Here is the input.
Amino acid sequence: MSSAPPSPPATVSGASYAAAAVTMAHYKAADSKREQFRRYLEKSGVLDTLTKVLVALYEEPEKPNSALDFLKHHLGAATPENPEIELLRLELAEMKEKYEATVEENKKLKAKLAQYEQPQEEKRAE
Here is the structure.
């Protein structure tokens, strides 16, 4: 048995056969890349997660107005937290504490100021 490719049919010119072979190789390369990408998605758990969210949407008794919003909400809940987001949340909590402390200090200072302003107004009235 020889391993040489079969000769092209008599109706196909040599150039056409070469072009067809290149096209077939291109499709095989694209299929190979597609298959690699599918295996990557499987290995990383993306396909399982998408399947679970789509099943949840399918099983919803009342379908939401926006399927995309449903997917975003459920995918967002399933993904691990981004460290940058966690840092921003901590910073926000610190800023809220500082704000509350500043508001409380402002109230105390206003009360103190009111004590000192009243006697001066009473002196003017006399």
